Amino acid sequence: MRSCVVLLFASLLTLCEAQGTIVTPVFVLKGRDLLLKLHADPPEGVSYVDWKINKTVTLLRIVQSTKSEVYGSFTGRVEFEKFSVILKNVQEVDSGVYSAVAGTDAGDKLVSEYKVTVQGPVSPVELIVGRVDSSSSESCDLHVTCRTHAHISSSTFRCVDRVCSQEGGERSQVTTSGASLQVYLLNNVIICNHSNQVHRTQDLIPAEQLCYPSTGTIVTPVFVLKGRDLLLKLHADPPEGVLCVDWKINKTVDLVRFKPSGEETVLRNSTGGFEFPENKFSVTLKNVQEVDSGVYSAEVRTLQGNKLLTEYEVTVQGPVSPVVLIVDRVDSSSSESCDLHVTCRTHNSNISSTFRCSKRVCSQEGGERLEVTTSGASLQVHLLNNLIICNHNNKVHRTHDFKTTEHLCDVHADPPSHLVWVIASCTAALTLILIVVLSVWLYNDRRRRIGSRRSVDNVIYEAAQDETSAPQNPTNDVTYSSDETSAPQNPTNDVTYSSVKFHARSPQAAAATGRNQSESLYAEVKKPGRSFND
Q1: 16 inside domain
Q2: Mean pLDDT of 456-463
Q3: Which residue has the higher pLDDT, 310 or 138?
Q4: Same domain, yes or no, for 371 and 408?
Q5: At a CB cut-off of 8 Å and minimum separation 6, what does 119 contact?
């Protein structure tokens, strides 16, 4: 009984304490660094902050924001700034729930919690045109397959009068690794996309060029992250009687020439060099840099002349700089509302915005704020599910920082209704448990006392019955042992023993006294006075 009560009590305490923080989901690319920081300033009198993983393993203790102690496998991989922590070169095994616990004189307090998922880059993807069916010069059906090394997704696109649509709508499936494989249409371009929350690869083909080849080529825009590889391939098979296929940059510089057999000759190398995949007439640019940006085209030579088959406008971009979200000021006009003034800042740009929260429902004054930086990236601050998000991104990379409005306005707002309900429920449950425990204790104590009283009564009754059944000595109320050797030898320690006897009384007398025979038992005990000899 006691163990069950203790277990229930502990469970309810855990439930009540767990309502104070919000778990923030974070996804990070394998090999990158991860910044974890407190959602709010540590409480007064904090002596240290412990960062833990899965609530049991301490990875870092920061003492008074000046020094730290790193534990376990994170040694050499952890940095800290005040009470924030930076995990270096994270791997999949580092996924888990990270929490910050502040140690104070009043006890430990959970101040931040993140659910971190580390994901690796997804595998390359390829979009293959299986068949082109044309019933007239104005329409055609395109049957395509989006393929990774382990998964495929097929779809059909219909083009009529140069307007294309996807039969059945966008196709999407989740792979065994948890990534998403998609085939969809955007501005008459068929896109094959393989992505998870932190990385993506894609391939694309202009639908118009496949259905209406006589219209010439369409320039396909491609953005690629600096240091990555880029696959360039033909959008359509070369015509009959091909003499060679040339890949050029900016339509003037020849890079690679393919013979009809597929044998390649490098005419001018790129920054990182070339690789040649199994796909005939395709080329992969290795380790691309910003100087490799430009228009890449594939031109086929025949006896009838030259024909442009494929054209890409390639833009190589570097990663954007880190961003930080700063809370400049918190204004509170009442216990139910507050205004948050924040700044989203990079190393050379910043953007400010104000958020108004009333009864824990927040809105952004003037709507989402967006600014284009000098490097062509986008700096953005917006609100999503009561999270203020500061986002810095270009076409291939992004960094972000965020804060929860609940933590910022907590000191100025009443507890949310669900938290009030949880606290009330926990209080009622704990009170009920205390009442039950007290009732059980009182009940057991009463039973013990009654049992003890009955034992005394039984002894008295038995002694009384034995005395009334024994032969009475009418001349003497005091009896001594006939054994002289066992009699007391010290006159100063003599003990007088008295026999307990019931005196017969009439029922009328008993009624007059209001006591029965057993109740007056102690009153009938008489002891002769003691004599002490000097």
Answers
A1: no
A2: 51
A3: 310
A4: yes
A5: 27, 28, 29, 30, 92, 178, 196, 197, 198, 199
Q: Which domain holds residue 161?
A: 121-215
The answer to whether the CB of 368 falls within 8 A of the CB of 381 is yes
Q: By the 8 A CB rule, do 28 and 114 touch?
A: no
Domain boundary among 165, 196, 215: 215
Looking at 194, 215, 236, the residue that finishes a domain is 215
Q: Tell me the two tokens of residue 289.
A: 């840099």
- Residue 296 has which token pair? 């890449």
Pair 140, 206 in one domain: yes
Number of domains making up the chain = 4
| Residue 275 CB partners (closer than 8 Å, separation 6+) | 229, 283, 284, 286
Token representation of residue 291: 């100087």
Are both 115 and 28 inside the same structural domain?
Answer: yes
Query: Same domain for 328 and 410?
Result: yes
Whole-prediction pTM value? 0.56
In sequence order, what are the residues at sequence separation of 6 or more whose Cβ sits closer than 8 angstroms to the Cβ of residue 18? none
Helix (H) or strand (E) holding 152: strand 152-160
Whether 187 contacts 181, CB under 8 Å:
no
* Torsion of the alpha carbons at 179, 185, 190 and 195, rounded to the nearest 10: -10
- Residues 308 and 335 both lie in one domain: no
Dihedral sign computed on CA atoms, order 468, 471, 474, 479: negative
Which band of pLDDT confidence, cut at 50, 70 and 90, is reported for residue 44? confident
